[in-house]
Amino acid sequence: MPTCPRCQSALDAAMVHCPRCQLVLKAHGHPGIPLHRALDGEPLCATCRYHADDSCNFPQRPQAQTCTLYRPPIQETEEHRFPPRRGFLGQRWRQYQGLGAVLALLLISLVVVLLQG
Ligand code: SF4
Ligand SMILES: [Zn+2]
Fold first, then answer.
1. CA 65 to CA 54: how far, in whole Å?
2. Cα(25) to centroid of ligand 2, in Å?
3. Tell me: the pLDDT tens digits for 17-62?
4. Do the domain assignments include residue 18?
5. Is residue 21 part of a domain?
6. What is the mean pLDDT of residues 110-115?
7. What are the residues facing 66 on neighbouring strands?
8. Number of domains in the chain
9. 29: alpha, beta or left, given left = phi > 0 and alpha = psi -120 to 50?
10. Which helix or strand (DSSP H or E) is residue 67 part of?
11. What is d(CA 46, CA 65) in angstroms, rounded to the nearest whole number?
């Protein structure tokens, strides 16, 4: 269950304000728009993905203490570091898929010609 970042009261996920301390929890009074909030005084932008890739043009950047679009940096997962390896044949098959299709058509044509002749 989520808790209020200011007073630690238990919250319902759809609450727009904290019922105890009235902290605004959602943006624009809409339960579907989360309002991210800096908790330690450090601006959210310091760890935001959109600040890192320089794609944010919000006026509050780079000092945003609250933001609706904050995105944490992409965590490097095991899969990112060690992408699943395909077997040798799997890789080769993908490389020569088109050639394989042409050869299959030629083979089918040859069989048809031989059966008719
Ligand atoms: S989206 Fe918000 S938190 Fe992220 S860089 Fe822009 S203003 Fe900062
Ligand atoms: Zn509260």
1. 18
2. 9
3. 999 999 999 999 999 999 999 988 899 999 999 999 999 999 999 9
4. no
5. no
6. 92
7. 37
8. 1
9. left
10. strand 66-67
11. 10
Which of 15, 42, 95, 44 lies closest to 24 in space, CA to CA?
A: 15
d(C-alpha 21, C-alpha 32), whole Å? 21
In a domain, 1, yes or no: no
Q: What is the pLDDT of residues 96-106, one digit of tens each?
A: 788 888 999 99
Q: Tokens 């203490």 belong to which residue?
A: 65
Confidence label for 75 from pLDDT (cuts 50, 70 and 90): confident
Answer whether residue 9 shows pLDDT above 70.
yes
State whether the beta carbon of 64 lies less than 6 angstroms from ligand 1. Answer: yes
Residue 10, φ and ψ in degrees, nearest 5:
-70, 140
Residue with tokens 């209020």: 4
Of 33, 39, 50, best ligand 1 pocket probe by most atoms within 8 Å of the beta carbon:
50
Is any atom of ligand 1 closer than 6 Å to the C-beta of 26?
no
Cis peptide before 31 (omega within 30 of 0): no
Question: 110 in a domain, yes or no?
Answer: yes
Domain that holds residue 102: 88-117
